[in-house]
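Data availability (excerpt). The following record was deposited with the supplementary files.
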Amino acid sequence: MPETHACGPDSDDAFFTALAEVFDRFPDKLRQYAVSCVDHETDIMKIDFDKQTAIARIEDGKVVERFADRGGEELAAGLICCKWWRSSDNTWECLKRWDHAVTGVPVDEKVLKPPG
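Predicted structure:
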């Protein structure tokens, strides 16, 4: 039996209502961004996103993620960020990056910077 968790529009109605209003204001972003619940990674897998970042790649038609320490050489290589969260100090931090083999994009310092 799958474990239940309190994420999504059914459990966070006010948040998703406010988020819908943001997408109404920026309709061109509707299919560019998605909401993700990270409680399975933080609560069940014990991933500490303050210390780690996911790195994803495609392998045999599946997305495979592994976690690397923030500030490590691997992340300094300029992997492209595709998932952010707002940290407790009100800055945007990268939670997930795509491996170069997936993107084919050369290393570039500007991809390390969060949006905004």
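Summary of structural features: The two ends are 41 Å apart (CA to CA).
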